[in-house]
Design brief:
This protein is of the alpha/beta class. The protein has one domain: 2-enoyl-CoA Hydratase, Chain A, domain 1, CATH 3.90.226. The protein has helices spanning about 25-40, 65-70, 75-90, 105-115, 140, 150-155, 165-170, 180-195, 195-210, 215-230, 235-240; strands at about 1-5, 10-15, 45-50, 95-100, 105, 115-120, 125, 160, 175. The strands form 2 sheets. Strands 1-2-3-4-6-9 form a 6-stranded mixed beta sheet, with helices on both faces. A 3-stranded mixed beta sheet has the order 5-7-8. Helix 1 runs parallel beside helix 3. About 45% of the residues are buried. Keywords: Lipid metabolism, Lyase. One of its GO terms (molecular function) is lyase activity. It comes from Dactylosporangium siamense. Pfam families: ECH_1 (PF00378).
Length: about 240
């Protein structure tokens, strides 16, 4: 589900592969967090490329796992797992380059929004279909990708934005043909890996320190509303209606 390797230049490659749509279960989110933590803790690692295999980058949480659960344990688990994975991207001591293809939805936005650099393929689309699933969350991270009013419109309507749109906003560094995506991400990673590693790690820490808000805290605030919607039964009804 989560594979991790490190090349000779110190670039760690972490790959999500959970067909058919890379929607991760509870265990998958924690495994991703652990892989990112391990990469950052390795002194030989100078940068991380986060990418995926399959039809798209990430489709968020495994809704089937939540629907099959007989208690709120799965909901608590996936919320904590997502928070852990998003935080692991943000807190990784070295820069994380997200290589995005196909769909990047829900939890995928949380990962990409916390990344340091984003490279996307021409077919990549980004969105938060949370309201159609009776949930909320990751508006914190979408706000790091698109302007405030665009984010609100996307949140309310579940509309998606293209890689070209995000490139115009400046949040996506480059847009390339899909077959060139991995190479483009590694080109950025190898450029970073060629710098002094102590300076790069200090730069990452300093940039996090001057962020205008704490994305970890604001995301956990958002999650409280998801809990409320589930506890009141609204989320289940919305998901059932959406599936009809």
């Amino acid at each position: 589900m989560i594979e991790s390797t490190v090349d000779d230049l110190g670039v760690a490659e972490i790959v999500m592969a959970n067909p058919p749509v890379n929607a991760l279960p509870v265990a998958g989110w924690f495994a991703l967090a652990a892989a990112l933590d391990a990469a950052g803790a390795d002194p030989a690692v100078r940068a991380v490329v986060l990418r995926a295999e399959g039809r798209g980058f990430n489709a968020g949480v495994d809704i089937k796992e939540l629907q099959a659960a007989t208690s709120h344990a799965a909901l608590v688990g996936v919320n904590r797992g997502c928070a852990a994975a998003f935080s692991a991207v943000y807190d990784c001591p070295v820069p994380v380059i997200a290589a995005v293809h196909g769909f990047c939805l829900g939890g995928g936005i949380g990962l990409v929004g916390n990344a340091d650099v984003i490279v996307a393929s021409e077919d990549a689309t980004f969105g938060l279909p949370e309201v159609d699933r009776g949930a909320l969350g990751a508006a914190t991270h979408l706000s790091r990708l698109v302007p405030q009013h665009k984010m609100r419109a996307m949140m309310y309507t579940s509309a998606t934005a293209t890689a070209a749109e995000l490139h115009a906003f400046g949040s996506v560094l480059s847009v390339v043909p899909r077959e060139e995506l991995r190479a483009a991400a590694f080109a950025v990673a190898h450029d970073i890996a060629g710098k002094d590693p102590q300076v790069i790690r200090a730069a990452k820490e300093s940039l996090n320190g001057i962020d205008p808000w704490d994305p970890k805290r604001s995301y956990r605030y958002e999650q409280g509303f998801t809990f409320e919607l589930n506890l009141t039964g609204v989320a289940d009804q919305v998901r059932m209606d959406f599936g009809k």
